[in-house]
Amino acid sequence: MTQAVILAGGKGTRLAERLNGRPKPLVDVNGTPLLELQVRTLAHHGIDDIVVLVNHAADQIQAFFEQRQFPSRVRLFDDGEPRGTAGALLACLDDLDDRFIVVYGDTLFDIDIGHMLAAHEASGADATLLLHPNDHPADSDLVEIDATGRVQAFHGYPHPDGAELRNLVNAAFYIVEKKALLAWRDFPVPCDFAKDLFPAMVRADAYIAGYVSFEYIKDLGTPKRLDKVEKHLRSGVVQRASRQHLQKAVFLDRDGTLNVLRDYVRRPEDFELLPHAAQAVRAFNNAEYRVVVVTNQPVIARGEANCNDLQRIHNRLESRLGDAGAYVDAIYFCPHHPDAGFAGEVPALKIACDCRKPQPGMMREAMTAMNIQAADSWMIGDSTADMLAARRAGLRSVLVETGEAGRDGKFTAAPDFQFAHIGAAAHFIVRTYPLLAAAVNEWMLKIQPGDMVLVGGLARSGKSTIASVLKSELMARKLDAHVLSLDRWLRPAGERSAGVLGRYALEEAQEDLKDWLDGGAINADLPSYDRMLRDRGLPERTVLAQDMVLILEGVPALLADWRSERRIWRLHVEAAEAPRRVRVETDLVARRVADAQGAAQVYKQRQQDETPPVAAARATADGVLDFDSIFSIDDTP
User: Which residues form the Nucleotidyl transferase domain (predicted)?
Assistant: First the structure.
């Protein structure tokens, strides 16, 4: 197996108050010396030969290893004088294997080393550097790579004014081929890998590769950093960040979700973050979600921008997020466009592909690359293409009312959840959803395959939210579940009669669902309804298996006799009237049903013809859920 070299010669001046006379690599981390944690982590990943380069307080490190047993062979080399990170290693090059890993003696890490080694071997690089984004790129040394992952340049801090660089920081964890260093043995010392040797090698056309990873690696060279690392160890953050563990992610559409929708963004100058975007991404970072941007970019196929232009645009995105202490873990883009006829178009890219949303190719590629579990992940976007892509990828979907706001009308795909903007979506995902999931747990445990769940209540009381949470949690239990909104069966405006039941064609709904209600299955086109366009859309192919849990939600859900032999659970959702009224009137204005004055009139009318029968149906429910204290209308993440 590959050898590892730990650079353990540092004094740890900034950490002196925690060292009590020990060298920095022996600093106590939650009761264990850092060097022991490093050696045992390397051994866990199959590294059985470890070379430790020492200088300051070498005798203490020697004594440390003499007093302990490790599964790997450990050898110490004293370079005699400070030579810098690269200089120390070059001095003992003859004693190293043909390939080795370089580890800094002040870092805590949990990295899938086998995966990184496979990437290094596949690239054929002279050296591979672990790179990752951080929440302060403006004052970090950044590494520039090309589309193939080859390092092009190192950008030391401070950066020039106005510089917009990709947020990729050298994590100080390398895989190196010995033969690539032979010509550099006489490099002037003291010298550092990141600041001196690697930049010189890149200038000399050596192949230095970047391996971009979200995995945990942090230096703990100051008391503040040490405290943070210890907290992460105790809370499980370090372990959960390993790509050997399933990850949870938030997939983000770009235009109209993260940034202002302006036709197409062709230049960095056209890119402007939306309000709440950076704060939302930071909330996802803090909640341990991997943040992945997935964006259709037909401007490339149309010849209106090239990949270099797009990289500059994404550099601006990462710089703007970094200014607010936020970062994305990956950006995937589809350069294709199926329609021809544009001046300057690129014929090779004018194809139908499996990565252009609503196809789920970008999400599936990211899930494979980053070991992401779909059931714990989300997609946030502003279009029906985003919602359909989420469904096809098995993700929870959130529609934001910025950009297209779901009014594109291209596909029939209702979102699981809908919010005013990405900030409100982040607030819900990070704070509110876990509380709602806990609140429906009692009912989730009662529901069995083939059951029907009716979720009723007044408009904007949280019915659709509860139904979607219930579906998501049932599917996490490996139960197949499907939500249908009774709004699918709203009558056209000209065919409605008085009262809430006069607005819904419930007889049609019962007929459409008859085969399933009778204990069978359905594979048929059912009506669809576009809330933003306030009209029925194209029929939607719907498959309801015999043992599927059907969740039927809507204002009149508890008002009808569903005439079924299936077990039916009846849930009534209620809300405090003042915030519900705000939600009703805000929604009517947002959907352009009425202006503020007209919305108030609609609310008053609904109070007369909707509230009495729905309130009466409450008495027939198996349970009543009141979530206003949890489902906040607060928009801030």
Answer: 4-233
Q: How far apart are CA 192 and CA 84, in angstroms?
A: 5
Residue 449, C-beta contacts closer than 8 angstroms, at least 6 positions apart = 479, 480, 547, 548, 549
**DSSP bridge pairs for 524:** 542
Would you state the structure tokens that stand for residue 28, as one six-digit string?
A: 């106590």
First to last CA, the chain: 46
User: What does DSSP say about strands 529-530 and 32-33: parallel, antiparallel, or unpaired?
Assistant: unpaired
Beta-carbon contacts of residue 558 (< 8 Å; ≥ 6 apart): 454, 456, 570, 572, 614, 617, 618, 620, 621
Residue 234 has pLDDT above 90, yes or no: yes
- The count of residues in the chain is 637
> What domains can you pick out in the chain, each with its CATH number?
3-240 (3.90.550.10), 246-431 (3.40.50.1000), 440-637 (3.40.50.300)
- Catalytically active residues are 253, 255
Asked if residue 266 has pLDDT above 70, the reply is yes
Q: What is the pLDDT of residue 636?
A: 39
Region 465-471 average pLDDT: 94
Question: With 60 as the cut, is the pLDDT of residue 632 above it?
Answer: no
pLDDT at 1: 63
Average pLDDT over residues 361-365: 98
| Rounded Cα gap, residues 549 and 453, in angstroms | 8
**Which candidate, 36, 39, 55, places its Cα nearest to that of 4?**
39
Cβ contact 129:170 at 8 Å: yes
Q: What is the DSSP letter of 576?
A: -
The DSSP line for 170-215 is EEEEEEEEHHHHGGGTT--SS--IIIIIHHHHHHTT--EEEEE--S
Check if the beta carbon of residue 23 is closer than 8 Å to that of residue 12.
Answer: yes
